[in-house]
Each structure stands twice: as C-alpha cells, then as structure tokens.
Amino acid sequence: MTEIVRPLLIFICLFINTIAEPSISNFQECSPKEIVISHGKCSLYVNELIFLSEEYNKEDVPMEAVNNMSRACQSITSCFGGLQCLESQKNKELYQRKCDSVQLKNFEVESCLTRFIKDIYEKNSSCSSKYDFTAKTFQQKREAYTSGKSCFLDFVKNNCSERALSYMKSDYDHFLDILTIPSENGTCTPVQNTLTKIQCEAVMREMQFKMIELSLSRDEHVNQNLSAACQEVADCTRPCSSMDSEGIDKLCGNFELLDDKEFVNCTEKIGTIHKENKEKLSGYKCMSGLDSIETLTKNKDCMKEVMKGECDESALKNFDRNWKILDNALSH
Ligand SMILES: *[C@@H]1O[C@H](CO)[C@@H](O)[C@H](O)[C@H]1NC(C)=O
Ligand SMILES: *[C@@H]1O[C@H](CO)[C@@H](O)[C@H](O)[C@H]1NC(C)=O
Ligand SMILES: *[C@@H]1O[C@H](CO)[C@@H](O)[C@H](O)[C@H]1NC(C)=O
Ligand SMILES: *[C@@H]1O[C@H](CO)[C@@H](O)[C@H](O)[C@H]1NC(C)=O
Ligand SMILES: *[C@@H]1O[C@H](CO)[C@@H](O)[C@H](O)[C@H]1NC(C)=O
Ligand SMILES: *[C@@H]1O[C@H](CO)[C@@H](O)[C@H](O)[C@H]1NC(C)=O
C-alpha cells in the first residue's frame, strides 16, 4: 500500500445506534388518574425488572431469575398497555424493547442465532439450503423462517441450549416479529440492530479478512475482489436502513478503486519513484515546485500526466472515477 491509496483502508465500524421512535398513533394525553396508576402500579413491576437486571447482569443468569424477569416484563407491558393514553403506550413500547433485548440474551437466543448463521455459511446443510434464511429483505426472511420453521427448530434442538429451545417453542411468533418487522419508518430498534449484526457477522468477517490480507500484501496479483465482498455487507445490513448506508456505499466505492489493480499498481510505482528518485519526476512540467506526494494528489491534471508517462495506458481506464474516490478519501 502506498501513502496515496492507504487512506482508503479506513476501518469499518458501522453499527448502529439509532433508536427508533416508538410508533404511537393517536393516543390522548394521560389523565391524572391514569398517571397515578402508571406511576404506582406499573412502576412496581418496573422496579422489579430493574432490580433483577442489576442483580443478574452477567452471563449464566439462573433460570429462576430469567423466569422472574419474563414475568416482570409481562406485567409491565400489560400494565402500561392497559392504559389507553399516550405516555403509557410509549412506556409500553419502551419496555417491550428493553424486555426483548434482555430476553434474547438471557434465553441464549443470540448465541443460538450466531451458531445457526455460522452453520449456514460454513456448511449450508441440506435443510437450511432449502430456505433463504440469509435473504436480503425482511419480507423474504420472514417467509424463510416461516416455511423453514421446523428446519430452524431442528437446528436449535440439536445445537442450542435448553433455554433457547424453550424460548423458541413458546415465543416463536414474537421472535419472528422482532427478526422481520421493521418499525414504522424503516428504522430498526436496538434489538433488531443487534440481530442484524449477528446475521451479518459472517460476511463482515470475510470482508475484514480480505482487507487485512490486502493491506499486508505486496503482491498486486492477490485478487480479493473487495468490492464484491463489500456489496455483500451492504446487502446484508440494508434491511436496517437506519444504518449508515451512505457510509457503506462510500466504503464500497473505495474498494472498487482498490480492486483496480492497474491503477493501484501505478500509484504505487509513482510513490516509489518519488521516494527513491525524486528528480525523475521533476521532468514533468506540472511537477515543478511540487515536492511532496500530497501536492501531487491534489492536482488532478498533473496526476494524470505523470501516470500517463510512468505507467501502462490500462492504469488510466477508470481515471476519472478513481480520482473522485481518491480525492474524496484524501480530503477527509
Ligand atoms: C418516524 O416517523 C415519525 C412520524 O411518522 C417521526 O415523528 C419520527 O421522528 C420518525 N423517527 C425517525 C427515527 O426518523
Ligand atoms: C423469583 O420469584 C419468586 C416469587 O416471587 C421468589 O420467591 C424468588 O426468590 C425469585 N427468584 C429470583 C432468583 O429472583
Ligand atoms: C446455500 O445453498 C443454496 C443452494 O444450494 C444457495 O442458494 C445459497 O446461496 C447458499 N447460502 C449461503 C449463505 O451460502
Ligand atoms: C448441529 O446439529 C446437527 C444435527 O442436527 C449436526 O449435524 C451439526 O454438526 C451441528 N452443528 C454444529 C455447529 O454443532
Ligand atoms: C468481483 O465481483 C464482481 C461482482 O460479483 C464481479 O462483477 C467482478 O467480475 C469480480 N471481479 C473479479 C476481478 O473477480
Ligand atoms: C505492476 O507493475 C509491475 C512493474 O512495476 C509489473 O511488472 C506488473 O505486471 C504490474 N501488475 C499489474 C497487475 O499491472
């Protein structure tokens, strides 16, 4: 990697902290009486949940505590849900999401899903290859987990914990909703972001692996096809459109440039000449007075002229596109 293209390898740290607004339709403000109930009765259950979550916030939460938390969650949502007014409905949604998050962790659903996705990418067994569990849209994914329910549950039975199985047996429909229903504006909830991250880990790992390989490699024939890998990550994360999709697209653009081996090879060559034999570059009129490589990368016409002089014509075939990407990366 030369100093010219190195800035393109910014690391991916997408994910993802947008918190969706609760979807509240036309509820009235709460009356004083409703406020009293929700501050009294409902907060008793909330306190119990808070107490339990603080007491058991590590791995290996005993099943008895998990069940108590589930019970508290149920009481909270039905208590707030029973009051037909705005504040209370907001609270219901808020706690529903907190509870989803706590339960997916405590019932070891997250680690189970991680295993399932890994198995699909590594083995793609006869049953899981029949359904499109890694589909790109919520709708298709919902179809896969609906028609492929018994395939998925078989996997859970054989490869996940007792408690993950018990959650799936009793709450499969709810799990499906969390997994595949976007909230109103297509914004993902935090728990959906977590699940999306789990489902995209395999493709992200693949891409990071390729990036590392590329940045360590001196061999320009190594063909990682980073832009294809990046596109897979973009497709995988797209259902949560709240994610930084502009950032992903820009990143994928960078990889298109890195995949243009002739261009990269040429910038590498110019970088080397600049380091070892600076005078040679002063033969270019436009280079007079430009003594750092950074100045060269700020002058499009000059860059083009030097590349024309030093490299094969093939290095210039995507010059305008590449320049745009490069300029963009270097100016940040
Ligand atoms: C979602 O849409 C509602 C109105 O439909 C809006 O008030 C809210 O701010 C939006 N949330 C986000 C995160 O864009
Ligand atoms: C669970 O709840 C029961 C009944 O309220 C209580 O007796 C028990 O101590 C609780 N267990 C835990 C681990 O919180
Ligand atoms: C699994 O196999 C099916 C068909 O054999 C294929 O369509 C699908 O893309 C594969 N899935 C993954 C994640 O490799
Ligand atoms: C999951 O269970 C199946 C049997 O249904 C087994 O063939 C497979 O190897 C297991 N996968 C993992 C990752 O343990
Ligand atoms: C990289 O992947 C893209 C998209 O799959 C494909 O069009 C392109 O031909 C691949 N390039 C190389 C060099 O393999
Ligand atoms: C890269 O440049 C070297 C000479 O500097 C050349 O031998 C090699 O074939 C080039 N590789 C590509 C992919 O253009």
List keywords for this structure.
elongated, 0% strand, mainly alpha, T20D4.11-like_dom, binds 2-acetamido-2-deoxy-beta-D-glucopyranose, 2 domains, T20D4.11-like domain-containing protein, 332 residues
What does this molecule look like?
α4 crosses α8, α9 runs antiparallel to α10 and α10 crosses α15. This protein has 2 domains: 167 residues, no CATH class; 70 residues, no CATH class. The chain has 332 residues and is mainly α. Helices cover 66% and strands 0% of the residues. The chain contains 15 helices and no strands. The structure holds 2-acetamido-2-deoxy-beta-D-glucopyranose (6 copies). One 2-acetamido-2-deoxy-beta-D-glucopyranose (NAG) binds next to α4 and α6.
Could you provide a short overview of the structure?
The protein has helices spanning 32-55, 63-81, 86-106, 109-122, 138-147, 149-159, 162-180, 190-216, 226-237, 245-259, 261-276, 278-281, 293-296, 300-310, 319-330. With 332 residues, the chain is mainly α.
Integer count of domains: 2
How much is the average pLDDT?
A: 83
Count of strand segments:
0
Query: How far is the first residue's CA from the last residue's CA?
Result: 19 Å
Rg for CA atoms: 27 Å
Oligomer: single chain
Question: Which cofactors or ions or other ligands sit in this model?
Answer: 2-acetamido-2-deoxy-beta-D-glucopyranose
Order of helices and strands: HHHHHHHHHHHHHHH
**Quick one: biggest sheet?**
none
What is the helix content? 55-70%
Approximately how much beta-strand content do the residues carry?
Answer: under 5%
Give the structural class: mainly alpha
Shape: elongated
Uncertain residue ranges: 12-22
